[in-house]
Amino acid sequence: MPPPGSHFQKTNMIIANLKFPNNLFLAPMANVTNLAFRMLCKKYGAALTYSEMISANAIVRQGEKSMQRGLTCEDEQPFCIQVFGNSSDTITEAARILEEAYRPAIIDVNMGCPAPTVTKQECGSALLNSPELIHNIISDLTGNISTPVSAKIRVLDSMEKTLKIARTIESAGACAITIHGRTREQMYSGTSSLEYAKRIKKELSIPVIVNGDIKDGISAKHALEYTECDGLMIGRAAIGTPYIFRRISHYLENGEPLETNHCIQQVNDFIEYTKLVGKYNIFSPGNIKAQSKAFTKGVADSRIIRGKLNSAHTIGSIMDVMHGMCDETS
Ligand SMILES: Cc1cc2nc3c(=O)[nH]c(=O)nc-3n(C[C@H](O)[C@H](O)[C@H](O)COP(=O)(O)O)c2cc1C
Question: Whose CA is nearest to atom 7 of ligand 1?
Fold first, then answer.
């Protein structure tokens, strides 16, 4: 039985007639949320997984690498593809190509990326300066593709401006909205405000998903209870720790932490990640090295282990370091 006041939803999370097994979602993260990583998060209970952001321009120009980012498999459903761009025509054309190829449950538009390479092209969080363009993008999409459309935003420097964007997204036909409670200028620093998501949830009728700084059961419970949002999206806390989804859902359901052997869990999950990368044919040495370091998170003496991983130049030597990680710390 969930503790009184719990907002963990085991059965009734619905977006655009899609019923989700719970309300914990994996955030889109460039260079992290490939199919292998998403499948691990799914295994641990992420109800909806998001692709890395995909350039609409690149899809329309038939960019192979960008197309690959939408790669999915039947077991992953429901999953969401996120696109970025600044022209409603190009985004709609890209969305048509992606829906045809991968049949995602939702297509999300990135309105939050603060990276200068993206904002210089007037994409990502730069769109937040143009409510009219946002309206055109969402209404063109909803009018021309059959997949439900959502948007993920950052907040602006005032509540009124942020509410205006949220209302625009809803009135243009989006099925849901995600609010990361930082401004574009904050990048990833400072704290993520919950005030905006709380206020937007009060005003809008579509599901609102709160995102930013949710890292454990306590912060998840607080974010859900304080904002009364429909769902939670988890980003950085899942990097190197896909098991976070099980930990958080356990806490939300039982009101107490889940006891596990963290180090062994991390090694096993990393090994499974490497197998999944092979299975889906998306192996890349750079990614394996980066992920091996990420999976040392929270392990005792992780700096020493990461030092060893830095000097490991073959997949075999990376695997040796990871296999020995728990011996190292015992
Ligand atoms: C490595 C990395 C890559 C990211 N890539 C994307 C992206 O492709 N699309 C997007 O909307 N947000 C992206 N984000 C932002 C996250 O989705 C999320 O909004 C942000 O990290 C705040 O949530 P958190 O505190 O749970 O990490 C990225 C964040 C990180 C750390």
Answer: 29
Q: How far apart are CA 175 and CA 109, in angstroms?
A: 12
Measured in whole angstroms, the distance separating CA 250 from the mean position of its chain's CA atoms is 20
Q: pTM score > 0.90 for this model?
A: yes
H or E stretch at 151: strand 149-154
CA atoms within 13 A on the CB side of 72: 24
Across the chain, mean pLDDT equals 95
DSSP 8-state secondary structure symbol assigned to residue 305: H
- The structure tokens 């022209």 sit at 87
Residue 330 has pLDDT above 70, yes or no: no
Give pLDDT, residue 12. Answer: 73
DSSP conformation class of 59: H
- Atom index in ligand 1 nearest the CA of residue 236 equals 27
User: What is the 14 CA–ligand 1 centroid distance (Å)?
Assistant: 23
pLDDT score, position 8: 65
Q: Based on the residue annotation, tell me whether 113 is a catalytic residue of this protein.
A: yes
Beta strands in the chain (DSSP E): 13-15, 18-20, 24-26, 48-55, 79-84, 106-111, 149-154, 176-180, 208-211, 231-234
Q: What's the whole-number mean pLDDT along residues 289-312?
A: 97
> Of 256, 317, 259, 329, which is closest to residue 292 (Cα–Cα)?
317
- Of 113, 123, 175, 229, the catalytic one is 113
Ligand 1 centre from 34 Cα, in Å? 13
| CA–CA separation, 328 and 325 (whole Å) | 5
The Cβ-side half-sphere exposure at 118, using a 13 Å CA radius, reads 22
